[in-house]
Design a protein that fits this description.
The complex is a heterodimer of chains A (111) and B (312). Chain A has 111 residues and is an alpha/beta fold. Chain A has a single domain, classed as Cupredoxins -  blue copper proteins (Immunoglobulin-like), CATH 2.60.40.420. In chain A, strands 2-1-4-6 form a four-stranded mixed beta sheet, with no helix packed on it. Chain A has a four-stranded mixed beta sheet with strand order 3-8-7-5, with no helix packed on it. The longest helix of chain A has 21 residues. Chain A is globular. Chain B has 312 residues and is α/β, with parallel strands linked by helices. In chain B, 21% of the residues lie in helices and 19% in strands. Chain B has a six-stranded mixed beta sheet. A six-stranded mixed beta sheet of chain B has the order 5-6-7-8-10-9, with no helix packed on it. In chain B, helix 5 links the parallel strand 6 and strand 7. The chains are: A alpha/beta (111), B alpha/beta (312). At the A-B interface, strand 7 of A face loops of B.
């Protein structure tokens, strides 16, 4: 019984690892009042994490308000998981000349 | 030295020496056709200028502790010390925003405590750093926006001059600049409509109302509409902060001027990869921070603006 449980757990771990690999998490750095990369392509299910490397607070605000961070101080992070394919434009609501796009693509061979 | 010395044409060097001696820092009279440069002093007024004087401070950024100035509290205290030491007591003070760095209660508290030492009435407008609390702008409005309209705009009269405080840091659009918005513009149009064209106007807001450098967001999307409502007036002075450096421009009857920060300097437009805080040598910092005093003299179209650095 114990062995079966272990096997089950191991399978679950494998499955988890596989899922994670499929939609590798991605980072966007906020540096020098720019989002980098400015345009990021990810697979559906990806969690994108923004990190503010500036000495000035910034926000990550979707133009459709699909996601919206609070003000991120230096080294603060904000994460959002994209579950629907599409093109997501965003900007810094404090410095609106800072803009970026996340392009979420359907998983390969997916629905 | 008196305000009338220019009739005899003192050299610019002489005027500057005189100012250094008087300890008032850089001084100039904004006169017609003067290029937007600090070096082009056309005519200078002495510190004992008679008239109605008010003071501008800006960008205190309480809570900022990064390398560009680890002690923004200390430099605000120094700035207020300068205010207290002015030979002629100003009528009041305006603060053109970014009182705090992160809109924290403790930052608003610290700023208030220090600024109160000047014992002057203070008229505020918010900067984008003052409205990033949990409920955006709530703390600012509770403290400094009581009785104001919308996100905190208002007007008042003092000594025959009409003062208008505008908010251009709210509801900013992706890819755009500062923004006043339709509601505020309508209010402004109505506020000035029945006023006499001879009344001097002073407009103050955080982000420059004129386009300084759009790729860094230094301008206001609908600023030109606001200025359109002020066309009929013979004397309009626009005072801003946000860019942490002195810059001026004269366009017709309108004088634009930005004040130094009391916290940290920012680079000249395009002089760095970004407009972020500029780290300078410790002994240079106080020369790049400061306050501005503005004097209105009866029967003079333009106001005399004196920028005083904390040091030098």
């Amino acid at each position: 019984m114990f062995r079966m449980l272990m096997r089950g757990a191991f399978a679950a771990m494998l499955l988890l690892a596989a899922t994670t690999a499929q939609a590798a998490d991605a980072d966007v750095a906020i540096d020098n009042f720019t989002f980098g990369p400015q345009e990021l392509h990810v697979k559906v299910g990806t969690t994108v994490t923004w990190v503010n490397r500036d000495d000035i607070p910034h926000t990550v605000t979707s133009t459709t308000l699909a996601f919206r961070s609070k003000a991120l101080d230096t080294n603060d992070k904000f994460s959002f998981t994209f579950t629907t394919p599409g093109s997501y434009k965003y900007f810094c609501s404090l410095h609106p000349h800072m803009t970026g796009t996340i392009v979420v693509e359907a998983a390969a061979g997916g629905k | 030295m008196t305000a009338h010395d220019h009739d005899h044409g003192p050299s610019r060097r002489k005027v500057l020496e005189c100012m250094t001696w008087a300890g008032t820092g850089v001084l100039w009279t904004v006169a017609g056709g003067v290029p937007a440069s600090l070096g082009m002093i056309d005519q200078a007024l002495a510190a004992e200028t008679k008239g109605f004087t008010f003071l501008q401070i800006s960008d205190s950024h309480m809570g900022f502790d990064k390398p560009a100035n680890p002690n923004a509290k200390g430099t605000l205290e120094e700035a207020i010390g300068r205010v207290k030491a002015l030979p002629a007591r100003p009528a009041f003070m305006i603060h053109t925003g970014d009182i705090t760095h992160l809109s924290k209660v403790s930052e608003f508290d610290d700023a208030e405590k220090i600024i109160a030492q000047a014992k002057l009435d203070v008229h505020y407008v918010p900067g984008e750093h003052d409205i990033i609390d949990e409920q955006p702008g709530k703390l600012y409005r509770e403290r400094h926006g009581r009785g104001a309209k919308g996100a905190g705009w208002y007007s008042f009269d003092a000594n025959g001059v009409h003062f208008i405080g505008l908010v251009n840091v709210v509801d900013l659009k992706a890819g755009g600049l500062g923004n006043l918005g339709a509601e505020q513009l309508e209010w402004l149009e109505d506020d000035v409509k029945s006023r006499s064209a001879s009344q001097p106007i002073v407009v103050f807001a955080h982000i420059p109302l004129w386009t300084v450098y759009p790729s860094w967001g230094w301008g206001t999307e609908d600023g030109a509409r606001a200025l359109g409502y002020l066309k009929k007036f013979g004397s309009v002075t626009v005072l801003n902060g946000h860019i942490h450096q002195v810059m001026q421009k004269v366009e017709g009857n309108v004088t634009f001027h930005t004040a130094r920060s009391t916290a940290f300097p920012q680079p000249a437009p395009g002089a760095a990869p970004s407009p972020g805080p500029m780290k300078v040598a410790d002994d240079k910092l106080r020369g790049m921070l400061g306050i501005a005093s503005v004097t209105f003299k009866q029967n003079e179209q333009r106001l005399a603006i004196i920028d005083t650095p904390l040091q030098g």
